[in-house]
C-alpha cells in the first residue's frame, strides 16, 4: 500500500529515507519517498533473503509512552511497509520520521490502549518477511510538560524573527535530542535553519540568514506523550502556521555623523531618521536586536531605580521594545534638538514623534535592529539575541549535531486545531 497521510507516505524504502532531521529541524522540508523506484540489486542466485525485526516497542510491551515510534531493523530489504492498528483493527495513519530512525504515528496514541505494529519487507529475491509487535500504552498521567509558542496562527513577523517555543518544565540535556527531533519545521521556500536550546525551558529555531520575504512557515510539534525526563511527558501535539513580511531592516551606526537610523526595505533604503542613542553613562547596546513588542502608548516608570538621577515616570508613544532590560525605539519630542547630533537618552533610540509614528506603521514583531559603534555590547539573552551569534556558534546549542549527514528534509506538518497549550 502507498496511501498518503498527514506526514507523508506510509510505505517507505528504509535505505532511501533521508537521515536525521535533528540539527536542522528542517531546511524547507519535503515528504519522504513512498517506495524505491530503483532497480533491485542482484545478490547471486535467487537474491538475498530479507530479514526484519521490531526493536521498539518490543512485542508484549506494556506502559509504552503514547508518543512512541515504531523502530525496526531490516536486512537486504528492497521494499518496506509499516502499519499500525488499534485494538479494533482500525489503521493508524503515520509515516517515517524524516530522520529515518522510526515510523511516527500522525498523532499521539490513545492512553491505556492496545496496538499492533507490523513491518512487511520484501527482499531482493522477491520474497516477503514480516515482524509484529503487540503493545499497550501507558495510562494517562498528570505529570505533563506543555510546549507553547506565543505566536498565533496567521501571524506575520519580521525577517529576524526566531521561532520561540517555551516548555513549562526544564528538560535535562539527556532528553533534549529526543524532544528536539519532535519539533518539525517546514519552510516555503526552503531555507537552512536549526533549533538551539536557548535555555533549559526554551527552544529557538532560526534560519542561517535572515528569512526570505514572504516565507511560509509551518511547525508541527509532535510532543504529545513524549518522555521529557523524571517521569514527565509531553502534554499534547500542536501546530503553528505563520509567515514572514517584507524584508525590513533597521540599522544605526553610533560612529556616523549625523546619527541616523537607516530603514531598508527589500534591499532599498526608504528613509533615514535622525536619532539620539544612550548617553555615555547609559549607552545603548551594540548588536543585532529584534523588535519584541510594539506599544502605541505606554508609560516608562523607573522610580525604583537605585540612582535618584535616573528616576522618572513618563508617557511614551510608539514604543518598540528591543531588550528585556528596557531598551526601546520610541518617540522623544523632548530630545528633537539633540537627535542626529548627540546621545542623551537612557539607552533607548530616540526620534521625533512624527518619525516614530511613521516607523511604527512600517514594522512588525521580529524586525531586526542592527546597532553598532556604542561602548556596550548586547548580552546574550537580553531580548531575542539569536542573531548576535555566528552560525557556527549558534548550532552548538542544538542537542543534535549539525553534520552534513544530518541535514535533511521533512514532510509538511499535519493539521491540528491550535498552536499551544
Account of the protein in words:
- It is a single chain.
- The chain is mainly beta and 421 residues long.
- It has 3 domains: 4-136, Immunoglobulin-like (Sandwich); 144-246 and 393-406, Immunoglobulin-like, CATH 2.60.40.3710; 248-363, L,D-transpeptidase catalytic domain-like (Beta Barrel).
- It is 5% helix and 38% strand.
- It has 3 helices and 31 strands.
- The protein has helices spanning 173-180, 353-362, 391-394; strands spanning 4-5, 8-9, 11-12, 51-56, 71-75, 77-86, 94-96, 103-105, 114-123, 128-136, 144-145, 147-148, 156-157, 163-167, 183-188, 193-199, 202-207, 216-221, 227-229, 232-234, 238-244, 248-253, 260-265, 268-274, 285-290, 293-301, 313-321, 328-331, 349-351, 368-372, 376-377.
- A 6-stranded mixed β-sheet has the order 24-23-22-30-25-31, with no helix packed on it. Strands 3-6-9-10 form a 4-stranded antiparallel β-sheet, with no helix packed on it.
- A hairpin with a 6-residue loop joins strand 22 (248-253) and strand 23.
- The longest helix has 10 residues, at 353-362.
- The radius of gyration is 26 Å and the shape is elongated.
Amino acid at each position: 500500500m502507498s496511501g498518503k497521510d498527514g506526514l507523508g507516505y506510509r510505505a517507505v524504502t528504509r535505505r532511501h529515507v533521508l537521515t536525521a532531521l535533528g540539527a536542522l529541524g528542517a531546511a524547507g522540508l519535503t515528504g519522504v519517498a513512498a517506495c524505491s523506484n530503483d532497480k533491485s540489486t542482484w545478490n547471486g542466485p535467487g537474491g538475498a533473503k530479507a530479514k526484519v525485526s521490531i526493536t521498539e516497542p518490543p512485542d508484549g510491551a506494556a506502559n509504552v509512552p503514547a508518543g512512541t515510534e515504531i523502530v525496526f531493523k531490516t536486512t537486504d530489504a528492497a521494499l518496506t511497509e509499516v502499519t499500525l492498528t488499534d485494538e479494533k483493527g482500525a489503521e493508524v495513519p503515520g509515516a517515517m520520521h524524516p530522520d529515518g530512525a522510526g515510523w511516527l504515528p500522525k498523532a499521539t496514541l490513545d492512553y491505556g490502549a492496545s496496538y499492533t505494529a507490523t513491518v512487511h519487507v520484501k527482499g531482493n529475491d522477491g520474497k516477503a518477511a514480516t515482524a509484529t509487535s503487540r503493545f499497550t500504552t501507558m495510562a494517562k498521567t498528570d505529570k505533563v510538560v506543555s510546549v507553547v509558542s506565543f505566536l498565533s496562527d496567521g501571524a506575520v513577523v519580521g525577517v529576524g524573527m526566531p521561532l520561540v517555543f517555551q516548555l513549562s518544565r526544564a528538560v535535562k540535556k539527556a532528553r533534549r535530542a529526543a524532544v528536539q527531533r519532535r519539533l518539525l519545521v517546514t519552510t516555503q521556500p526552503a531555507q537552512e535553519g536549526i533549533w538551539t536550546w536557548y535555555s533549559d525551558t526554551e527552544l529557538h529555531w532560526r534560519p542561517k540568514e535572515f528569512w526570505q520575504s514572504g516565507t511560509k512557515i509551518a511547525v508541527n510539534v509532535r510532543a504529545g506523550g513524549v518522555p521529557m525526563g523524571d517521569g514527565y511527558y509531553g502534554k499534547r501535539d500542536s501546530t503553528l502556521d505563520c509567515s514572514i513580511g517584507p524584508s525590513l531592516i533597521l540599522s544605526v551606526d553610533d560612529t556616523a555623523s549625523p546619527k541616523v537610523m537607516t530603514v531598508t526595505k527589500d534591499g532599498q533604503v526608504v528613509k533615514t531618521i535622525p536619532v539620539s542613542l544612550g548617553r555615555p553613562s547609559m549607552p545603548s547596546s551594540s548588536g543585532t536586536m529584534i523588535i519584541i513588542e510594539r506599544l502605541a502608548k505606554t508609560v516608562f516608570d523607573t522610580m525604583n531605580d537605585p540612582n535618584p538621577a535616573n528616576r522618572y515616570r513618563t508617557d511614551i508613544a510608539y514604543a518598540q521594545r528591543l531588550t528585556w532590560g528596557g531598551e526601546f525605539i520610541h518617540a522623544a519630542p523632548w530630545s528633537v534638538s539633540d537627535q542626529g547630533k548627540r546621545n542623551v537618552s537612557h539607552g533607548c533610540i530616540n526620534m521625533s514623534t512624527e518619525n516614530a509614528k511613521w516607523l511604527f506603521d512600517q514594522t512588525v514583531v521580529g524586525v531586526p535592529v542592527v546597532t553598532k559603534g556604542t561602548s556596550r555590547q548586547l548580552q546574550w539573552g537580553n531580548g531575542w539575541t539569536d542573531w548576535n551569534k555566528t552560525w557556527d556558534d549558534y548550532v552548538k546549542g542544538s542537542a543534535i549535531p549539525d553534520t552534513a549527514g544530518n541535514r535533511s528534509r521533512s514532510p509538511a506538518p499535519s493539521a491540528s486545531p491550535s498552536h499551544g497549550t
